[in-house]
């Protein structure tokens, strides 16, 4: 994130020395390049006009303007951090409230930490990836679910500066950097290990249109994109792409753990991730919707709350709507009860400098 450049670069130089970014180029093979953390920002982009149906939910997983300027090539070079949202591990390896046995491989969702609205910014994308992080040495006491109910704080992986464009287009899929407990928006910042992340899937890639706060109509619905904490036992890129459905590994329970990402639309806005539990027996299904739709990767939910930072989704139970293609043209949506267990992350947009105020 741009306002962490000085802090991030100092940490990289002091802890890692010179880091490398490993980029897999389809036509060349494996290419290893050294990237300086002070790479210049890309040139300003021309003003784009969002499509008329930009607020129609659900949005496609990749919502990128065809005439994006500059195009997705080698730009948006900067330090891009990735917030770790762990998926469930086998119970035998996660006894107690946290994983006390050291572990060196972390799988899960990794979120772009943090996006910005400014069109000149190298961070003007809201991105969720599914990835595997191989640490150089094992780390103990990580909050691995299902034994750990909540994360309790932020865990962030940060490579040195690289091209976000090349990640989006998958010209670069592996990066070396450092894994920390905490980031610029937490009280603590503790180095845990260096490691290499491999991006299995670019799950959600949404371009952030708004720059002058008026070019884009406001999001009338407070909307959240959903990412399940439980994946199929044979999880992997093929599983995620095959059907986008994620069955519960414990069929006897109707309680589904999900990470919800607040959909960004227009500044002022707020970049928020909450951990929720949805009881699928509470859902009133419509339009042929099923539990598969509610637990699908990237499922879209909406609340009746005002779409402001002070009215954001907070602790407790809430009635939410499920947005599906089948019910796109209907005001009568499937509804479910979602209980917020934890706010994992929240900063105020457009530039993510300040933490969200308490609700």
Features:
disordered N terminus, 6-stranded antiparallel beta barrel, 359 residues, mainly beta, 17 strands, single chain, 4 helices
Indicate the topology:
Elements: H1 5-15, E1 20-25, E2 29-34, E3 62-63, E4 77-78, E5 81-86, E6 103-113, E7 125-139, E8 155-158, E9 162-163, H2 164-168, E10 174-181, E11 190-207, E12 222-228, H3 237-242, E13 255-262, E14 270-284, H4 291-294, E15 299-303, E16 316-323, E17 334-348
Parallel strand pairs: 3-11
Antiparallel strand pairs: 1-2, 4-9, 5-6, 5-8, 6-7, 7-11, 8-10, 10-11, 12-13, 12-15, 13-14, 14-17, 15-16, 16-17
Tell me about this structure.
The protein has 359 residues and is mainly beta. Helices cover 7% and strands 38% of the residues. The protein has four helices and 17 strands. The protein has a six-stranded antiparallel beta barrel. A six-stranded antiparallel barrel has the order 12-13-14-17-16-15. Strands 1-2 form a two-stranded antiparallel sheet. Strand 1 (20-25) and strand 2 form a beta hairpin.
């Amino acid at each position: 994130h741009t306002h962490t450049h000085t802090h991030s670069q100092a940490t990289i130089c002091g802890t890692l020395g010179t880091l490398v970014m490993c980029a897999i180029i389809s036509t060349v093979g494996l290419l290893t390049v050294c990237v300086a953390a002070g790479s210049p920002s890309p040139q300003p982009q021309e003003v784009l006009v969002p499509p008329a149906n930009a607020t129609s939910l659900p949005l496609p997983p990749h919502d990128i303007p065809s005439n994006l300027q500059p195009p997705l090539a080698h730009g948006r070079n900067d330090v891009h951090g990735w917030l770790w949202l762990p998926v469930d591990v086998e119970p035998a390896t996660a006894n107690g409230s946290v994983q006390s046995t050291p572990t060196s491989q972390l799988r899960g969702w990794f979120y772009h930490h943090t996006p910005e609205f400014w069109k000149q910014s190298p961070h003007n994308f809201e991105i969720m990836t599914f990835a595997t992080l191989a640490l150089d040495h094992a780390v103990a006491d990580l909050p691995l679910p299902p034994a750990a109910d909540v994360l309790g704080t932020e865990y962030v992986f940060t490579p040195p500066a690289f091209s976000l464009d090349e990640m989006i287009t998958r010209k670069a899929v592996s990066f070396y950097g450092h894994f920390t407990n905490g980031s610029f928006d937490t009280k603590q910042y503790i180095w845990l290990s260096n490691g290499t992340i491999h991006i299995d899937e670019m799950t959600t890639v949404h371009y952030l249109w708004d720059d002058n706060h008026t070019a884009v109509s406001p999001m009338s619905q407070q909307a959240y994109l959903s990412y399940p904490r439980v994946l199929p036992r044979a999880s992997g890129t093929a599983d995620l792409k095959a059907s986008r459905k994620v069955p519960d590994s414990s069929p006897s329970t109707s309680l589904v753990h999900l990470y919800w990402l607040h959909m960004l639309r227009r500044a002022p806005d707020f970049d928020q991730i909450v951990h929720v539990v949805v009881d699928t027996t509470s859902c009133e299904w419509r339009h042929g919707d099923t539990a598969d739709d509610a637990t699908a990767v990237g499922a879209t939910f909406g609340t009746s709350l005002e779409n402001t930072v002070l009215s954001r989704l907070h602790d407790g139970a809430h009635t939410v709507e499920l947005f599906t293609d089948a019910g796109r043209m209907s005001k009568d949506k499937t509804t479910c009860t979602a209980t917020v267990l934890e706010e994992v992350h929240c900063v105020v947009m457009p530039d993510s400098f300040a933490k969200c105020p308490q609700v």
